[in-house]
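Below is how a single chain appears once it has passed through the pipeline. First comes the sequence as given, then the structure the pipeline wrote out for it. We keep one example in the README because the format questions we get most often are answered faster by looking than by reading.
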Amino acid sequence: MALRKPLSEPRTYLTALATAGVLALAACGGGEGGSDEAAPQSPEVDADEALVALLPDAVAEAGSVTIGVEASYPPGEYLDEDGQTVLGFNVDLIEAALGKLGLEAEWEPTTFDSIIIGVDTGTYDLGASSFTVTEERMEAVDMVSYFSSGTQWFAPAGNPDGVDPDNACGLRIAVQSGTTHDTDIEARSEACVEAGEDAISIEKFPTQPQATETIVSGLNDASLADLPTSLYALQQTGEQLEFIGDQYDAAPYGVVVNKERAELSEAVAAAFNAIIEDGTYEEVLAEWGIEGGALEEAEVNPAV
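Resulting structure:
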């Protein structure tokens, strides 16, 4: 089953979170989107000249930044039905912040694993693809925090294989490669082997929707992803999937910036804080029904 639609009624997302008892959003890495239903509209944001002055001259003069994105991770970032326009709540948040800097976003879809490398080598000015802020990533690049999410497991409705995230030895688990969930499940499998149990059979996919489809079809027993993405999967597949256990490992998402471009990192953080202060940030979160993931302040390389 293909997962392609944006959320038709964004506020139902918050309702579902409340029903699931997980309003305190708490994540990782990077479906293609597209339907006849409209996604929430980005708010209009005027440039703040004081913030524009924080930008490196070359960036300010260009008036735009290139952003590497793996556009297959709804509802964070995904392709519209035209196959080119990138939509999602992360897109709206970042474009609002860039609006304060007088910058246009040039989204460049690519593979998730290539984004940080692309930022480091100068292929992209920024990277934004539901990246969880981690110590390992901050060793390679700067990360500007702007939202918070966490990991949520899901399995076929009724959990026929008795999946327990804390005891998944011997099970078949699908994940998106290169994400924190990939690292998570590898560590769990190693722990199984060290305890004398069967290793977890891990199947990795380029995108989360591909991993999710194997749960719906019964090829794999369960998957794990960021809470918003896991909930999206449940919504798009009707009653075919259900949450297993509670979310865990709450952490901020971060925009990726080259470590040698500290001015740009600080300007992006200041822009996020400006939209937090003027209410634009809350407006975007409310449109998508994800107020529970709000941060009080954006930071460059926050403590995690």
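Confidence is low (pLDDT under 50) at residues 1-28, 30-37.

See the next section for the split statistics.
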